[in-house]
Amino acid sequence: MSRVRVAVIGAGHLGTYHLQKLAADQSAELVGVVDSSEQKRQQAAAKFGVPAVATLAELDGRLDAVVIATPTLHHLSVALEAIERGYHLLIEKPLAATVAEGRRLVDSAAARGLVLQVGHTERFNPAIAAALQIADRPRYIQAERLGPFSGRSTDVDVILDLMIHDLDIVATLIPSPLVETRAIGVPILTTATDMAAARLQFADGAGAQLSAGRASLEPSRKIRLFTVERYVSIDCAKREVKSVRRLPPADPTSPWPQITGELVEVPPGDALALQDHDFLTCVRERKKPRVDGEAGLRALALAEAVKLALVVPLPAGVIP
């Protein structure tokens, strides 16, 4: 296979970004875009010069793979159709609306021998990728992911919209089983949870404290990793990584270790372009994706645990 013949399903905000990256990738042949909205189809066709169709069936025989950028609630039906037609898949995060749906997708793709990648784009953020290389045995993880209200992704709550990025990082760094979850959340601008905080405890003693919100004045995307040997601070938006490391005492009689800073180089790179290129490479070479279906499932399982533990505060003035 020389170039991967690929289409994007969903021509909304995120789907348009995928179209841009795939159109610029020399290993992709952008075959078309699928969307139920005639207006979005016309806009995509005019901008990218590819066929814009209402159904995936209209591209049969011309595709190797699809990128699914529809609302989460449609991931199951859209992905199952693509699997039935034999197409490799990159499914935007979260993998599905529930763990049960996600498991069905992972198993269905595996049964057909298809590549299934989940669009946890932060794994391809050069700052996070650099930090993960030195994040030895994390004991405590803090993450804050806040942003102004955009009006997008309101079909899901903030846990599946934003917090799941950091839940995926936690799942990557801490393989131990989850033993306890505490969470609090509140609707602000929608009828779903728009602000949430969660504490997760794992069987090996590691823990995580996460906060996410989509009704903040200013954006913030920061992760702090406290590991056995290091403290690593990541600013995902600025793509900066700071690290200090514990070393043996300079004086053998001292009970205290040395604390020294270390340089962490963050290479340039566009996370979405890197992710989409990785998907194309995995399709061409039949490689396991960096974020495969099982990884997407673990992040989704942690998200479900947070949702189940969620306590919504009573309205002001209400006394139980």
Taken as a percent bin, the fraction of beta residues is: 25-35%
Please state the second-level CATH architecture of the largest domain: 2-Layer Sandwich
Q: What spatial form do the alpha-carbon principal axes imply?
A: globular
The total count of strands amounts to: 15
Helix-strand string: EHEHEEHEHEHEHEEEEEEEHHE
The CATH class assignment of the largest domain is: Alpha Beta
Helix content: 25-40%
Please tell me how large the radius of gyration is: 21 Å
- List low-pLDDT spans: none
Distance between the termini: 65 Å
Number of domains: 2
Please give a structural write-up.
- The protein has eight helices and 15 strands.
- The protein is an alpha/beta fold and 320 residues long.
- Helix 1 packs across helix 7, helix 3 runs parallel beside helix 4 and helix 4 runs antiparallel to helix 8.
- The strands form two sheets. It has a nine-stranded mixed beta sheet with strand order 14-13-12-11-7-10-9-8-15. Strands 3-2-1-4-5-6 form a six-stranded parallel beta sheet, with helices on both faces.
- The model has no long low-confidence stretch (mean pLDDT 93).
- The protein has two domains: 4-121 and 272-292, Rossmann fold (3-Layer(aba) Sandwich), CATH 3.40.50.720; 123-268 and 303-311, Dihydrodipicolinate Reductase, domain 2, CATH 3.30.360.
